[in-house]
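Exercise 3.2. Students should predict the tertiary structure of the chain below and write it as structure tokens, then compare their answer with the key that follows.

Predict this chain's 3D structure.
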Amino acid sequence: MKDVLVTDFSGMVQAEDFLPLLQAQRAGVVYKNWTALEGTHCYCSPDAQAQILAGLPDQLPRLRWIDSGDFHYMSLLLASREKEPFHLVLLDHHPDNQEPAFGGVLSCGSWVKVLREENPWLRDILSVGPDGCPQAIPEGWLEARRGERVYVSLDKDIMDQRWARTDWTQGTHTLDQVKDLLLQLLEGPVNVVAVDVCGGMAPEKGARPEDLKINRETNIELYKLITTYLK
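Answer key:
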């Protein structure tokens, strides 16, 4: 599995040199440059949602690289393509289940709540990483859903700053712990239908060369693992 959707809202994937790396690896990159699209930073206006949905390909790659956590609401828009029952596994330092603000406008902090309330195919949500939530996949969770469809959404802010540099508060997971979580899902008894990845820091948010380098190296490790096991 080599195809990957890359959505670029902030220029971060270019600054990290991650997009050229994917292209050099001859990955089948579906690149969407939405840096000029208004109404997308942290909040996604109805007009921006309509343009994003219209611009997505009919056949979505099962691996999706979203941008920074400011655009995690893309997980909601991508999951809207699911037309069969599925479970969401969220690997994140934040639950993203706040009430939508500003007249109900979708945001990076409300997309999980909106998904739960509006997507008829969603069966349940397992959040790993936020305060008050499990920090690992609970024993028996995977086996109880054997053969069932799972959508995985990873925000790199679940990791501490040795492994990821983001513009949000961060958790304490190591890269190895995150890779182990992914492996449990990808090699487990469930059917992982898609994985999306967000998190990082754009230059406009103050990213330094060291930050970009750390994020690029972590991206490479995650990309190699996911593309190896996502069949």
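Discussion points: The first strand starts at residue 4 and ends at 8. The radius of gyration is 16 Å.
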